[in-house]
């Protein structure tokens, strides 16, 4: 099959996945973000990269946002919000972060395939992204996606968070032009 056909199949998978996102879950996530004094974002592997892209957009919106693990990341407080990106909701380091944030009194948000997961149980708000987890395709050979491992979740995560950015922009009555002044200029 040609690359063009693969790309078309990927787009169909993404459309099927993203069309199933619950808008009330997205609205709740947006409210948590806007209510927070500081937002902390974390994920592992490719999900973490998608989280970093989302954190960049939040910074460009003028929100106080940090990527967990960076040297300039402060401590979390009850006035803050931790957003985790995990397909399985079982990533050990992220579950530990969720427990620490909860112990500090901070609400936890999760974007995941599995809301019933360990992190999902700790989260005050969850957005379910109905993709297939890398564990599902590795162990069962499930043909839910033609893509390897967690690619469908990671791509869906980026697009879902971009949709969340648009929701936040609408709530804040912002445009892309309002954000451009915070674009990196040391490149």
From TrEMBL:
Isomerase among keywords: yes
PANTHER family named among the record's database cross-references: 3-HEXULOSE-6-PHOSPHATE ISOMERASE (PTHR43443)
What is the recorded name of this protein?
6-phospho-3-hexuloisomerase
Query: What gene, per UniProt, encodes this protein?
Result: hxlB
Enzyme class, top EC level, equals isomerase
Q: Which UniProt keywords apply?
A: Isomerase
Q: Could you confirm whether the keyword Isomerase appears in this record?
A: yes
SIS domain sequence ranges = 29-174
Upper lineage is: Bacteria, Bacillati, Bacillota, Bacilli, Bacillales
User: What does the similarity note say?
Assistant: Belongs to the SIS family. PHI subfamily.
UniProt xrefs under NCBIfam families:
RuMP_HxlB
UniProt superkingdom: Bacteria
* InterPro entries linked: PHI/rmpB, SIS_dom, SIS_dom_sf
């Amino acid at each position: 099959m040609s690359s063009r056909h693969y790309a078309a199949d990927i787009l169909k998978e993404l459309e099927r996945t993203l069309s199933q996102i619950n808008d009330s879950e997205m609205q709740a996530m947006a409210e948590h973000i806007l209510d927070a004094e500081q937002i902390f974002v974390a994920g592992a592997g490719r999900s973490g990269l998608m989280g970093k892209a989302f954190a960049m957009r939040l910074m460009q919106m003028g929100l106080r946002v940090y990527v967990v693990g960076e040297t300039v990341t402060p401590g979390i407080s009850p006035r803050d919000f931790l957003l985790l990106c995990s397909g399985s909701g079982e990533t050990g380091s992220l579950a530990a972060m969720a427990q620490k944030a909860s112990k500090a009194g901070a609400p936890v948000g999760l974007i995941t395939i599995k809301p019933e997961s360990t992190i999902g149980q700790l989260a005050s708000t969850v957005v379910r992204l109905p993709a297939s987890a890398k564990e599902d395709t590795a162990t069962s050979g499930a043909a839910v996606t033609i893509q390897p491992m967690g690619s469908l979740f990671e791509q869906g995560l980026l697009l879902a968070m971009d949709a969340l950015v648009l929701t936040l922009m609408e709530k804040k009555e912002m445009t892309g032009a309002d954000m451009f002044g915070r674009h990196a200029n040391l490149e």
